[in-house]
Amino acid sequence: MSNLSMAAAAPKVRTSTTPPVLVVVGIAVALVGFVLPWLGLPRNILSLLTSASMTAILATGVGFLVRQAGFSSFGHAAFYGGAAYLLVLMSVYTGLSGEAVVLLAPVIATLAAFALSFILLRTQGVAFSMLSLAIAQALFELMMRWRDLANGEDGLRMRLPREIFGLKLSFFQKADTMFLVSWSALIIIIVGLVLLSRSHFGTLTLAIKNNEERARFIGFRTLMPRAAIIALSGLIASIGGTLFALYNGYITPGLLHWSLSGEALIIAIIGGTRSVWGPALGAFLFVILRDFAGNYTTHWQSIVGLVLIAVVILLPSGASGAVSSLVNRIRGGRDV
Amino acid sequence: MSDTYMLEATGLTRRYGGFAALNNVSFKLRQGEIRGLIGSNGAGKSTCMDVLTGRGRNQQGTVCLNGQDISRLSERERRAVGLSRSFQKTNIFPELGIRQQVQLAARKAEFDNTEEVLAELSLTAIADRTASDVSYGDQRRVDLALALVGKPKLLLLDEPAAGLTIEESLAMARHLRNLAERWKLTILLVEHDMEVIFAICDRLTVLHLGEVLTEGLPDEVRANPEVIRAYLGSTFA
C-alpha cells in the first residue's frame, strides 16, 4: 500500500449511529406517551400535551428541513395552516366524504410544497427564509381578506360527518383520544425520518446540504432531492395542521401567520436540529414553559426569549444535544 | 502510454467581459499520460480545469473524452462518462463519515472500489471518522479519494499538494505516479510545486495569459527561455 507519509492522527472514537441507550430511552418515552391518557391526568394537562404533540409535528418538519437541507423556513405555517384550511374549506364547500377530506388536505398541501420548492430553491440563506415567509404571509392575507370564502379573521367551523374512519368525530376532539392519535403520528414520523436519514437518500441530501457542487461533481442531481426534502417537510407540517383542524374543528388565519412559523423555528432551535427527535423535545419543553410562564406573567414571550438566548449560548446543539451528551457521559464518554 | 488520445481540448476560449481567461487553448493527452498544466497566477489553469469539467462553460472550442464530444455535458454527466476532478480548495462533505462519502461517490461510478481507494490513500484506519474531525492533510486525501473512486478514465487534479509539506508533496507525487501506472489512469495535473511536476509528469503544457506558451517534455520545458522568462525564473532552469 500507500507510500504516503502523511501521518494520520490517532483515530478518535466516534460513532455515527444512534447509541442503543438513546434508542431504549426513546422507546420508553414513546411507550410512556401511550399510557398517559390512562394515568388520570387532569383534562387541561392532556389538552396541553395534545397541543404540544401537534406543535411537535410542525417543529419536526421545520427541524428536518434545517437538518437535512440547511434551510431555515419562516413559512411553514403555510403548510400547517394551509392543510387545516384545506380540510375545513373542503368540509364546508365540497361533498367529499370525511375520510377524503382528511386525507386530501395534507396531500394537496404537500403537492403545493413540492411545487413551491422549485421557486424557493432559486434562493438560499436569508433569501430562502424571507421568500418562505412571504409565501405564508400572502396566504394569511388571502384568508384574512377573502371573507366570502373563509370568513376572514372570524374563522370558519369544520363540517364533517359524525363518523369518519369508522370512529365518532368526537374521538378526534377529546383530549385523551386525540392525544393518542397525535402522539402516534409523531412517533411514526420520527421513526420514519430516522430511517430515512440513514438511507441512501438521507446520506445524499446531507451531502448536498454540505457541498452541493461536490455532489454534482461526483455525479448526482441536486435539485430533486432538495425539492423532495422541502415537500417531505411540508407533508409533516401539514399532518400537524390536519390534526389541529380535526381536534379543534375551527380555524382562524392565525394558523397561517408568520409568528407560528417563527415559533416552530424557535422550538426546533431549543430542541436541537442535529437529531430528528430534537424539535419534538423542544416542542414539549416550549409548551410546558409557555404554560408555566403564562401562569405568572402575561409577558411569557420574554421568558421564552431568555430561554432561547440561554440555549443558543449554552447549548448550541439544543436540548437534544444536552440529552445525548448526558447519555454519553453515563455510558463512558463516547462522542456522538 | 497509448497512441490514442484520452482528452482532446481544441480551441478553448473563455471570456469574462473583455478579459480572455482562456484564448484558443488546445492540447491532447494520450491514454495513460500524466500531463502537468503550469503557469503563473492568472495564466488560466483553473479556468481551463473548470471548462474541461463543465464547471464553467467554454464559449468556444470543444472537449472530447476518448473520442466523445462532451462539450455540452454538465459536470454530472461528465463524471458519468469517466471524467473526475479534485479541487484546489478542499471540497468534501464535512458532516459525512470518510467511508460514507467515498461510498456515496462510488454509487455513481462504474464500480465500487471504496475499500481499495481508502487503502491506497491510507484512509482505512480513519474511515469511520467524520471528515470535519480529521487533519487538513487527511481531508486533502478524502478529496482525492472522491475523485479516484470508480477508477475514472481521466483525473483532473487541481493543486493536490497545496498546503502540504515538501516531504508530503513528494510522497504524494510518487504515489500518484505509481497509482496511475497500476490503474492506467490519465491525469491532468495543475500544480505550483515544480518538484512535484518534474517528479511525475510525462509532458508539460505551459499557459501564459490565457494562451498556450509551449508544450513538451519536462526537460525541454525547463530549458525553454520563454518559459524561464514568463514563469520558472532561474531556480528550475
Automatic annotation (TrEMBL), chain A:
Membrane spanning residue stretches: 21-39, 45-66, 78-96, 102-121, 128-146, 177-196, 223-245, 265-288, 300-319
**Subcellular location as annotated:** Cell membrane
The record, for PANTHER family, names:
ABC TRANSPORTER ATP-BINDING PROTEIN (PTHR30482:SF17), HIGH-AFFINITY BRANCHED-CHAIN AMINO ACID TRANSPORT SYSTEM PERMEASE (PTHR30482)
Q: Which domain of life is it from?
A: Bacteria
Lineage of the native species?
Bacteria, Pseudomonadati, Pseudomonadota, Alphaproteobacteria, Hyphomicrobiales
Mind telling me which InterPro entries this protein's record contains? ABC_transp_permease, LivM-like
Q: What is this protein called?
A: Branched-chain amino acid ABC transporter permease
Q: Tell me the membrane topology, using the record's own terms.
A: Multi-pass membrane protein
UniProt KW keywords: Cell membrane, Membrane, Transmembrane, Transmembrane helix
> Quick check: keyword NAD in the entry?
no
TrEMBL record, chain B:
Which GO-annotated molecular functions does the record name? ATP binding
- Spell out the Pfam families in the cross-references: ABC_tran, BCA_ABC_TP_C
Domain named ABC transporter: residues = 7-234
Q: Could you tell me the keywords of this UniProt record?
A: ATP-binding, Nucleotide-binding, Transport
Would the keyword Aminoacyl-tRNA synthetase turn up in this protein's UniProt record? no
Instruction: Family membership, please give it.
Output: Belongs to the ABC transporter superfamily.
Name of the protein described by the UniProt record: ABC transporter ATP-binding protein
Q: What is the lineage of its organism?
A: Bacteria, Pseudomonadati, Pseudomonadota, Alphaproteobacteria, Hyphomicrobiales
